[in-house]
Amino acid sequence: MATWQCVKQCGACCYLAPEERPDLEEYLSPEELQLYLSLVTESGWCRHYDHDTRECGIYEKRPSFCRVDAIEYEQRYGIAPDDLDEFAIDCCREHIADIHGDRSLEMIRFDRAVGKPRILRPQADR
Ligand code: SF4
Ligand code: SF4
User: Entry's InterPro entries (predicted)?
Assistant: First the structure.
């Protein structure tokens, strides 16, 4: 079974543009939504995301909605702890595909790290 983990030098989930995440109100409280929106810069990236290191500048103090853990996911998304890995892996793959691309180095590194076989979209006929 694949086990979720975050990989370094990715940062795809720190692109917070609300237009890319139309369901925010479904899983954030009004206070969290306010906090979330306060993090978004004009470019759509989180103000705490360091583009040089590709790391969170407030990692230890990052908001709860940035954390992947069983209790958080069960309460926020209704995901049973046994399904956390699969759900979190799918979320990361979606973010990575959007930001870096389906066949990017980041996607390859992520798939290797979580031990998930690569799922590639079929190429269009030439
Ligand atoms: S998208 Fe996933 S792997 Fe990439 S930085 Fe976010 S949590 Fe880590
Ligand atoms: S607070 Fe940190 S982990 Fe959360 S979106 Fe911003 S940079 Fe990413």
Answer: Puta_zinc/iron-chelating_dom
Residue 117 in contact with residue 103, Cβ under 8 Å?
Answer: no
Instruction: Indicate if ligand 1 lies below 6 Å from the C-beta of 4.
Output: no
Cβ neighbour number for residue 109 with a 10 Å cutoff? 16
Instruction: Work out the pLDDT band at 120, boundaries 50, 70, 90.
Output: low
Q: Whose CA is nearest to atom 6 of ligand 1?
A: 13
SS3 45: strand
pTM above 0.85, yes or no: yes
Instruction: Tell me how many degrees the CA angle 25-13-10 measures, rounded to the nearest 5.
Output: 180
Cα separation values, 77 from 12, 34, 74, Å: 20, 19, 6
Of the candidates 25, 27, 35, which has an alpha carbon nearest to the alpha carbon of residue 91?
Answer: 27
